[in-house]
Amino acid sequence: MEAAARTGWGGTAVKVRLWPSYATLLIAATMASVVLLGSPDWSFRAYLGLLLIGSLLIYAQRRLVISASSKAGASRYRRMSLVERAAVWAILLGCLPNVVVWALDLARIVETA
Amino acid sequence: MRRATTTILWLALLVGVLGLASAPTARADEPNPMQAATDFTYRCLETAETVSVLVMMDYSRSLKGPDPSGMRFKALQTSLGGWAELKRADGGPIDVEVAVAGFAHDTKQAAKVAPWRLISGDDGTEAVADTIAKARAHLKPTGTGTDFQQALDRSYSDFDLDRRVSDCRVLFWFTDGDFTTVTADGRIWDLEDHREAAVPYVHQARDAMCRPGDGVIDRLRKAGVVIFGIQLGSNATDLRPMSVGTFMGSTCGTYPIPDGWAPGGYLHAENPEGLLFPPPISRPTNCTDTGALGGQIEPGIGRVSLRVPRSQVQNPPPSSEKFTVHPAEWPPLAVTAPGEQAIEGFHVTAAHDPGQVSADVTLPNEGATGAWTVETEFANDTPTFCVSSNLDLAQAPDSARPVAGQPSTLAFIATHPDGEPGDLGVYRTVAASATVIDAQGNVIESAAEVTDGKVRVAFTPGEHVARVTVSVVATPTTASGLVLRPIHTEATIPTQSENLPSIEPYDRLLLGTITNTQTATVELTVIGASNGPSQVCLGEPEPAQGPTASEPHRLSYQTGCIELAAGERRAIPVSFTPSEPAVGAGRSSIALTLHSSTTDGQEASVQELALPVSWHQSIPVSYVRLALLTTAAVVGAVLALWAALWLATYLTTKFNTRHLRVASAAVRLTANGILHNAAEGDAQLFDSLAAVRQTNPRRVTTSPGELSLVAKTPPFPWQQPQFNATVPEGHLLAATGAHGTYDEGRSAPIAPGLGLQIIFTASLNQVRATPEGLPLEAQVYLFNTDPTLSEEKLRALLREKSIAQILIEWRKLATKSPSVSTDSSDTTQQRSRSWR
Asked: Which chain B residue has its CA at the smallest distance from A78's CA?
């Protein structure tokens, strides 16, 4: 999965591999569906897992983009592409429903007699 | 009665002029190729309990041409998927079995392709998929020619009419060709291979098939097999008359087809994408077809389901389409299918498919009597209407409790779905029936009738009957005589008895909502028999079922027997304490034994009851805590992502210092170019390029030191890193490749790669002190990571640079900036040099 894009000053066409972004989208969708289980434990795991893996993947994606720009001799780094931004939003949106599930569980006022 | 959406054959909806439209040579008086078959099948399926669908698929080699990817199997799978969901019009189940056989120059019997298999039921989808997979595997297009006679003979035997029982039988007969092949005299005769010789054999076989009375066509029709001929590619001459009975003046079998025999249908598709095996569509159940009444809606009708067949099959149907329902005197209902709309008190659910548009209309409580019509964008046959009362039955609020041992009457009223009372008086008649049973399951004789708009059930419970279960069914008939679907209800009601003690509440003890592990307590009241002392015994609590997987706690109440005087009331606290906090419903029951009074020296009778007890456990939520947790988690997520992006940017925001070489030289700048120091020059500048070691890639400093290259990481991920050349206050710079400067000429953006970067700097005072037209003393810096740079290339670049533009820009900046005191040693030093 590659995308060609024009960079800033240099105007060099840069081919960037976008697999981390696509992987992020896939993982975000999977983790978001964990909410259907209705299990606070699994939702918490999904939240943490998505955050950790997602952060690593978007870090990797940014490095790939910058590395590709640099190799192509571009005078500026490439801005975040649509799919890259979508991946970031997907992480947040994938986390949110899981957060609600486990936060709702933790927010219960448990009092035992 | 709730609206139940089930599926039934949509054949009735293919009534359109499919065949007429697809057969340009057809005569105007040709019968509709689907009408009779769909009507027959529709009627059959209304009461059928079993249906057999046999698929006779062509597997001749010719299919490689029109359908190389096997679209015919996909079309068949879609159709069978619908057949698997078949329900009768009254909602009853239908067992649907399917088999697939094949034919070309010979045949493959169903037992060796896809044998008979039930496709209705829970595993219907799997069964259909398996059947299709088998058909695909065994019916690869390998045969030569198409022998229609063998195809139908094989179909007849595969239906196994003598042994297999079925209420409705359907044959899908698919081919892309014509009757070309016959096996006779021990060899295969094919019209394409040896036309002259084969023609008599094919004619003979066709005549045998179509012979009235004992030809295979008539035998199938007589046995009730509806033949749907499905032709792919160009119209052929044999399939249509063999299926429908007549075409272009020739007939096949007894024609007109006698009453009681199954007619046939014919579908034609030019290409595999348009291929259609008669599939099912959704249609409402639990309603009554209006028949000859058509759209005349009478008082008492609460739901109208209407269908409008298309004039021509549209496969696939448009993604959405509009039509208008005119409900008598009411404003028109503009409907979009598919979709649900609430309009003027009407609730409309619209649907559509290749053969029809349909709408399920729930009427306002006051009804919408009169003539209904439907207006669609296509010319259509008459819409069909299916109606129901849409009423429920409920026990009348003022209905007295039955009394044990005495004639009792329970009253039930009709209600609309919103709970408002309905009026049974609008019907010509309402036939009512009821069944009453006691707690032991014994049937109590009862009579039901409708008076004053209520269904009244009269019965006499036994003297020792503590409660009864009453099932009531009411069947309304409209003013015109249309018998609507029955409405029914069932209720369990305690009796009043002089002899028996009673309990309150009598049907269910509700403990309410229990928070965490608090204890919920309610009172169960036991009331003594009115005519003497009686006894109520409470058994041990039953195990509780709650949201906790295994709830060890049980109901708490006083067990044992309680002696009650006549009419005495005693409250018994019943409580429950959950073992642990949880969220969800819980239930248990109390085993009660009611001992009757012993008047007149009779032995006490005993009634055993199980009183259901239910509760709901909850754990309250702190919304403040919820908001804080959610906010913290979201902020944490945003920060983590921000950190990842920032880190990636930070780690890469640096100049390329690998193989970096730097040189600098004093120069004099004139509008015509650069004057070098006599001792130096371009060659000297190039030769003085020296490798830079131990350089911070985020801040590259130079000698004599007034120039720095600075890489800055932005704080936010959406911002770009900055790579600038900067000089201290009192200096100016100009860089190649940069579009201007900022910070009053002290900074300029440069490329981080530093392939070849030339930067000029000058003292602000020097710029001011040098009159326009005279050479300006400046410093030039050369940064280079490109090993291929040559002296000639450098010279050319230096000559290309527009020094005049730099001088103009600098003089402008010098005019604007306040004067700065700087050390003039370097300018003095430069002035003392000789220039060329």
From this structure: B720
